[in-house]
Amino acid sequence: MIDDSDLLSHVRPPGWTNPTPRGRYDLVVLGAGTAGLVTAAGAAGLGAKVALVERDRMGGDCLNVGCVPSKALLAAARVAATARRAGEFGVSTTGVTVNFAAVMDRMRRLRASLAPHDSAERFRSLGIDVFLGEARFAGHDSVSVGRQALRFKRAAICTGAGATVPPIPGLAEAGFLTNETVFDVRSLPHRLVVLGGGPIGCELAQAFARFGCEVTLVEKHDRLLPKEDLDAAAIVRQSFERDGGRVLLESSVSSVEKTDGEPTVRIVGSGRGASETSSIPADAILVALGRQPNLESLDLGAAKVEFDPREGVIVDDRLRTTNRRVYAAGDVCSRFKFTHAADAMARIIIQNALFLGRKKASALTIPWCTYTSPELAHVGITPQQAEEDGLAIDTFTQPFASVDRNVLDGEIEGFARVHLKRGTDTIVGGTIIGEHAGDLIGLLSHAMTHGQGLKTFSSTIFPYPTRAEAFRKLGDAYNRTRLTPTAKRVLATWLKWT
Fold first, then answer.
1. Same fold, 5-163+292-363 and 171-289
2. Fewer CB atoms < 10 Å away: N or C end of the chain?
3. Burial of 396 (0-12, 13-18, 19+ CB in 10 A)
4. What is the DSSP string of 55-105?
């Protein structure tokens, strides 16, 4: 029996009584995930009268079924993988076993320990009226929660997104997992089929493979992580296969059959797009095929808020919907479905909705990271995007095999790669593939945000030995391109003369 009582005492407290609405609110926030919590807390901290409505659990996906539980699992999987290669460091081990139930218990314990920060009680203590229940627009300036009406000057739709489940024949009957249910699993499946080679699919597939599960990852494109740098995505695949995983590219699931209680997944077109079919027995199926906005039951039409069922609430660059009183932020309206993006967009809402700000979402520089081993982090454009946009670029790559700290730590796989606007040192994008890439990408994001060129890394002192030295090396590589034959002759003449 799964016991999440500690978690629920914070994010969905039993016996919670909704407050009596206090007249017209400056801001009503729908959804208590990252976007909603940041919007509500920030607005209340600046003196606004705020109501916050959540239909399920405070903390949203990130705390309950996203970043927090997944990274706890990935940490355990990384320890298991490190222990297996301990011999490379001269450390003897007598065998590595994974107690999966203990791994899941640790995850729940850590998740519950972080829950007070997102709790209903904490937000009530900030002076926010917290309503637990389903919200529905009742007009252009009001929302109903049960029988209670909340009138507003401004509203923010921050209801997030949920897992996309395709209409595969037999899938529902056979049973399946998503990121919203996989963290309730108590026993490790012997055979797992993962549908989707995006970030969620790759992260969880590798984790379960490292726990000892036989994992088959099915992806319709010709490579994993199709939106990422080609070379970096190839390294992720190689690492997953080293961990015992199996990858089927250019493949899709045609149906799922259940015989004698055992699901069998029918695959079409494995390999290089051949029309072959094959059957894979599975103890569990994980669907990781993207996310779709949570719009149901909001009755957006009553507020004259336009939306697309697949893309979400339609907003302008200032995050305003077609109802000038209503704004939106986070997964419900953005293609950047990341916690940090939701946080940044929430801050824009606070400025624009309450204080006549004119901040634009398009001005944000948003990095992201896939937390496989090695991690794959990215910011800005890729070479493919540059080609599509007709932007000429110069690319500099620093292999981690030539960075001393990576060599010493036995983490030589991967690289740091930066793209510059042709003929300048203006950074327009970059990719890092390697351990701790998610931490390192912030350096590039900071430089891009503040208009700092690649050459500035050459004049920055990094502690030795650290992985961040890769950026100094990249800066040096750029500076060497400035030393043209003419420049060399001038310098030689100067030295001879002096």
1. yes
2. N
3. buried
4. SS-TTHHHHHTSHHHHHHHHHHHHHHHHHHTGGGGT---S-----HHHHHH
At 226, list the tokens.
Answer: 């199709």
Segment 181-204, tens digit of pLDDT: 999 999 999 999 999 999 999 999
Element housing 487 (H / E): helix 485-497
Chain segment 32-55, per-residue pLDDT in tens: 999 999 999 999 999 999 999 999
pLDDT at 258: 85
Q: May I ask the CATH class of domain 5-163+292-363?
A: alpha beta
- For the chain, the 3-state helix, strand and coil shares in percent, each to the nearest 5, are 40, 25, 40
Domain spans, the chain: 5-163+292-363, 171-289, 374-481
What is the CATH topology of the domain spanning 374-481? Enolase-like; domain 1 (3.30.390)
DSSP string covering 421-464, please?
A: ETTS--EEEEEEEETTHHHHHHHHHHHHHTT--THHHHTS---S
Measured between alpha carbons, how far is residue 129 from residues 39, 172, 365, 423 in Å? 13, 39, 33, 55
The average pLDDT across 100-106 equals 97
Using an 8 Å Cβ cutoff, are 373 and 65 in contact? no
* Cα torsion 301, 304, 309, 312: sign: negative
Dihedral class, residue 58 (left if φ above 0, else alpha if ψ from -120 to 50, else beta):
beta
Indicate left, alpha or beta for 485 from its phi (over 0: left) and psi (-120 to 50: alpha).
alpha
Cβ 239 vs Cβ 224: under 8 Å: no
Q: Which positions ≥6 away from 440 have C-beta within 8 Å?
A: 377, 416, 432, 434, 467, 468, 470, 471
Distance CA 233, CA 433 (A): 9
Torsion of CA 343, 35, 208, 191, to 10 degrees: -150
Of all residues in the chain, the percent with pLDDT exceeding 70 is 99
Give all strands (DSSP E) within 262-349, no chain letters.
262-268, 277-281, 284-287, 291-293, 307-308, 312-313, 326-328
| Mean pLDDT for the stretch of residues 161-173 | 95
What is the rounded average pLDDT for all residues in the chain?
Answer: 95
Fold of 171-289: FAD/NAD(P)-binding domain (3.50.50)
**Peptide bond between residue 374 and the one before it cis (omega within 30 degrees of 0):** yes
pLDDT tens digit sequence for 269-281: 755 544 577 899 9
pLDDT recorded at residue 1: 53
> Over the stretch 318-360, which tens digit does the pLDDT of each residue have?
999 999 999 999 999 999 999 999 999 999 999 999 998 999 9
Q: End-to-end CA distance of the chain, in Å?
A: 82
Tokens of residue 249, six digits? 């590219």
- Segment 225-269, tens digit of pLDDT: 999 999 999 999 999 999 999 999 999 999 999 877 788 999 987
Using alpha carbons, list the distances in angstroms from residue 345 to 53, 150, 366. 18, 24, 11
